[in-house]
Amino acid sequence: MRILHTMLRVTDLDRSLAFYVDTLGMTLFRREEYPTGRFTLAFVGFGSEAHTSVIELTHNWDISSYDGGNGYGHIALAVDNAYATCEVLAANGARIVRPAGPMSNASPDRDNVEVIAFIEDPDGYRIELIEGVNV
Questions:
Q1: pLDDT for 75-98, tens place per residue?
Q2: pTM attached to this predicted model
Q3: Which residues are catalytic?
Protein backbone atom coordinates (compact mmCIF):
# COMPACT_ATOMS: atom_id res chain seq x y z
CA MET A 1 0.00 0.00 0.00
CA ARG A 2 0.94 3.62 -0.44
CA ILE A 3 -0.74 7.00 -0.04
CA LEU A 4 -2.12 8.15 -3.40
CA HIS A 5 -3.33 11.66 -2.66
CA THR A 6 -4.69 14.09 -0.11
CA MET A 7 -7.81 16.04 -1.07
CA LEU A 8 -8.37 19.72 -0.30
CA ARG A 9 -11.61 21.54 -1.13
CA VAL A 10 -10.89 24.88 -2.77
CA THR A 11 -13.15 27.85 -3.51
CA ASP A 12 -11.40 29.10 -6.66
CA LEU A 13 -9.62 26.39 -8.64
CA ASP A 14 -7.71 28.75 -10.94
CA ARG A 15 -6.40 30.75 -7.97
CA SER A 16 -5.39 27.54 -6.18
CA LEU A 17 -3.69 26.14 -9.29
CA ALA A 18 -1.75 29.40 -9.66
CA PHE A 19 -0.54 28.98 -6.07
CA TYR A 20 0.37 25.29 -6.20
CA VAL A 21 1.77 25.28 -9.74
CA ASP A 22 3.18 28.78 -10.28
CA THR A 23 4.19 29.72 -6.73
CA LEU A 24 5.17 26.34 -5.25
CA GLY A 25 6.38 24.78 -8.52
CA MET A 26 4.17 21.69 -8.54
CA THR A 27 3.06 20.06 -11.78
CA LEU A 28 -0.59 19.86 -12.81
CA PHE A 29 -0.94 16.19 -13.76
CA ARG A 30 -4.60 16.14 -14.72
CA ARG A 31 -7.80 18.08 -14.47
CA GLU A 32 -11.14 16.28 -14.57
CA GLU A 33 -14.52 17.95 -15.07
CA TYR A 34 -17.69 16.32 -13.70
CA PRO A 35 -20.61 18.44 -14.98
CA THR A 36 -23.28 16.06 -13.66
CA GLY A 37 -21.79 16.23 -10.15
CA ARG A 38 -20.92 19.93 -10.60
CA PHE A 39 -17.31 19.63 -9.49
CA THR A 40 -13.79 19.67 -10.92
CA LEU A 41 -10.73 17.76 -9.69
CA ALA A 42 -7.14 18.83 -10.30
CA PHE A 43 -4.18 16.68 -9.27
CA VAL A 44 -0.88 18.45 -8.50
CA GLY A 45 2.45 17.35 -7.10
CA PHE A 46 6.20 17.26 -7.36
CA GLY A 47 6.57 13.78 -8.85
CA SER A 48 4.73 11.28 -10.96
CA GLU A 49 1.47 9.97 -9.53
CA ALA A 50 2.81 6.49 -10.24
CA HIS A 51 5.57 6.96 -7.65
CA THR A 52 4.67 9.79 -5.27
CA SER A 53 1.69 11.14 -3.36
CA VAL A 54 -0.09 14.14 -4.83
CA ILE A 55 -2.72 16.68 -3.79
CA GLU A 56 -6.22 16.53 -5.22
CA LEU A 57 -7.77 20.00 -5.38
CA THR A 58 -11.57 19.67 -5.45
CA HIS A 59 -13.69 22.58 -6.60
CA ASN A 60 -17.43 22.17 -5.99
CA TRP A 61 -19.02 24.62 -8.43
CA ASP A 62 -21.90 25.72 -6.22
CA ILE A 63 -20.00 26.32 -2.98
CA SER A 64 -18.27 29.62 -2.28
CA SER A 65 -16.77 28.88 1.16
CA TYR A 66 -15.94 26.01 3.50
CA ASP A 67 -15.71 25.65 7.25
CA GLY A 68 -12.17 24.39 7.79
CA GLY A 69 -12.99 22.92 11.18
CA ASN A 70 -10.33 22.26 13.77
CA GLY A 71 -9.16 18.82 12.67
CA TYR A 72 -6.95 19.80 9.75
CA GLY A 73 -3.29 20.36 10.54
CA HIS A 74 -1.01 20.98 7.58
CA ILE A 75 0.82 19.57 4.60
CA ALA A 76 4.62 19.39 4.98
CA LEU A 77 7.13 20.05 2.20
CA ALA A 78 10.87 19.37 2.34
CA VAL A 79 13.04 22.32 1.26
CA ASP A 80 16.80 22.79 1.01
CA ASN A 81 16.79 26.20 2.71
CA ALA A 82 13.67 27.44 4.54
CA TYR A 83 14.91 31.04 4.76
CA ALA A 84 15.62 31.33 1.02
CA THR A 85 12.43 29.49 0.11
CA CYS A 86 10.35 31.91 2.20
CA GLU A 87 12.02 34.89 0.50
CA VAL A 88 11.17 33.52 -2.95
CA LEU A 89 7.63 32.55 -1.97
CA ALA A 90 6.94 35.93 -0.33
CA ALA A 91 8.23 37.72 -3.44
CA ASN A 92 5.71 35.66 -5.44
CA GLY A 93 2.82 36.65 -3.18
CA ALA A 94 2.68 33.70 -0.78
CA ARG A 95 1.45 34.46 2.74
CA ILE A 96 4.14 33.57 5.30
CA VAL A 97 2.40 32.90 8.63
CA ARG A 98 5.46 31.71 10.54
CA PRO A 99 8.82 32.92 9.19
CA ALA A 100 11.69 30.47 8.84
CA GLY A 101 13.51 29.74 12.07
CA PRO A 102 14.41 27.02 14.53
CA MET A 103 11.59 24.84 15.80
CA SER A 104 10.81 26.30 19.21
CA ASN A 105 9.76 23.07 20.92
CA ALA A 106 12.68 20.92 19.82
CA SER A 107 13.94 18.39 22.31
CA PRO A 108 17.22 19.53 23.91
CA ASP A 109 18.77 16.10 23.41
CA ARG A 110 18.48 16.29 19.61
CA ASP A 111 21.70 16.73 17.67
CA ASN A 112 20.18 19.19 15.24
CA VAL A 113 17.25 21.59 15.53
CA GLU A 114 14.89 21.64 12.58
CA VAL A 115 14.38 24.91 10.76
CA ILE A 116 10.73 25.29 9.79
CA ALA A 117 8.31 27.85 8.38
CA PHE A 118 4.58 27.94 7.64
CA ILE A 119 2.79 29.44 4.66
CA GLU A 120 -0.90 29.48 3.71
CA ASP A 121 -2.54 28.67 0.40
CA PRO A 122 -5.35 30.89 -0.96
CA ASP A 123 -7.98 29.00 1.08
CA GLY A 124 -6.02 29.27 4.33
CA TYR A 125 -4.64 25.71 4.37
CA ARG A 126 -1.31 25.68 6.19
CA ILE A 127 1.82 24.27 4.58
CA GLU A 128 4.91 23.59 6.66
CA LEU A 129 8.34 23.98 5.08
CA ILE A 130 10.97 21.78 6.74
CA GLU A 131 14.61 22.40 5.96
CA GLY A 132 17.06 19.63 5.22
CA VAL A 133 14.79 16.59 5.21
CA ASN A 134 16.16 13.82 3.00
CA VAL A 135 13.74 13.05 0.19
A1: 999 999 999 999 999 999 999 999
A2: 0.86
A3: 128
